[in-house]
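TEACHING EXERCISE
Course module: macromolecular assemblies
Task: Read the component lines below, then compare them to the predicted structure of the full complex.
Student: A.B.
Group: 4
Components provided:
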Amino acid sequence: MKVALIFYSFSGNTQRVFEYLKEVLLSRGCSLGFLRLKPENEPKSFFKQGFSAFTKEKPKLKGEVFYDLKDFDYIILGTPLWAFTFSPALRSYLEKVKNLKNKRVSFLFTYGSGAGLSKAIRELKSILEEKSAQIKSFASLEGKKVKERSYLEEKLKDFLRL
Ligand SMILES: Cc1cc2nc3c(=O)[nH]c(=O)nc-3n(C[C@H](O)[C@H](O)[C@H](O)COP(=O)(O)O)c2cc1C
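Instructor-supplied answer key:
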């Protein structure tokens, strides 16, 4: 099975979750596409980051970005929760993504307090549904706990059960 792992992470929490998913999927014999999204001009201040998410900015992404998912069997998307929504980098990616139709997709958020999480899940779900993706599962993980392996195992045990 060929799996695309596509995520944004600013301070490393979401990245940590994706490193774990990578390890699990490789141990299951999957082949992987691993893509960490990065805006060309990435705001570094909390206020600018929050504003860019809240106003639904779509920054230009840096580097080699694969947008065509036709060769993948399964796609996993990940993002921090920013200002009650998902990150601008993921928004940019979803605007240009190709061949998501009928693909199996899972997504996850990492978050701080959890404020705005259910709204953000609804929003991302509806964008994926508009693109006719088959949503298989979603998860949300508390950013400050993702260093604990047992937390990752517990939170993600059903996530990858396809
Ligand atoms: C600009 C900004 C906005 C945030 N907004 C929220 C929010 O609305 N709700 C919440 O629970 N956490 C919020 N957080 C916390 C992050 O979602 C959390 O720390 C996340 O795990 C960071 O992921 P990362 O390390 O992969 O960047 C925000 C963090 C930042 C930097």
